[in-house]
């Protein structure tokens, strides 16, 4: 007799691609298993006309899916790791983190010009505070244009909104078959990625005996180590507000782990960036220690001032 499980996912093309990838991987590894998808609309899918930084709140793309997991309507949830808040609700866990795609950000530009060759005052579309702050820091002349919507919509807006370029995660472009649109994969010295970018998060109920072996089969140990280090960094910094935070970890062949983290002011005038390394087994401690270094070097003031702006916006 076959087993049947249900995966909860958002309905965007990228989310469906990711959920279908997990479905195929599971059905291939477990021949008695059949996997169904349940599409769940999240708050982030409903509010489309407001820049995400202004919508506020944590877990905009995950909360409704986590509720379905908690009340048993689904057995697994597939998210982009980047969309996961630092805290996982009681009773749930990160069951598996499959092997990561390219974590970097990609520039897609209209006339195929790399960042360094974009004209003065170029209009670049992104609504990520992390991307805009880092862009302004290297190119203060660039005009940032707020850009939301799914990948296809954003690529179209490159033409319709008269933009010179847009910035998107390379991983999403690749999964959607738009890799050939990438003009330049931005170097990390210019654009440090978001925590977890390019990785998937498969969330499950804690101690679920039926799901545990499925999670073990999908998990990629190295990716998990790196992403947990990045998330420990995020966890230590997150103060309930939208902040330009970036972080990327890497393992070396000899079991070392190096983490680079960054906190910037919205205007990109202040960028605090540090790198810390140590044994991979201590990835989470390294993440916390790196966050504390940044806090001591001025990130604390940036986070405080952003909290005040947040409160003013909410009034
Ligand atoms: N915020 C939306 C989102 N969540 C994950 C990805 C890309 C795929 C990934 O990072 O795994 C994207 C799109 C983008 O930032 O361009």
Automatic annotation (TrEMBL):
Q: Which GO terms describe its molecular function?
A: hydroxymethylbilane synthase activity
Q: Which InterPro entries match?
A: HemC (IPR000860), Porphobilin_deaminase_cofac_BS (IPR022419), Porphobilin_deaminase_N (IPR022417), Porphobilinogen_deaminase_C (IPR022418), Porphobilinogen_deaminase_C_sf (IPR036803)
Top-level taxon of the source organism:
Bacteria
Q: Spell out where the chain crosses the membrane.
A: none
Q: Which GO terms describe its biological process?
A: protoporphyrinogen IX biosynthetic process
Matching NCBIfam families, A to Z?
hemC
Task performed by this protein? Tetrapolymerization of the monopyrrole PBG into the hydroxymethylbilane pre-uroporphyrinogen in several discrete steps.
Q: HAMAP family annotated for this entry?
A: Porphobil_deam
Name of the protein in its database record = Porphobilinogen deaminase
Q: Which organism is it from?
A: Desulfonema ishimotonii
Write the gene name: hemC
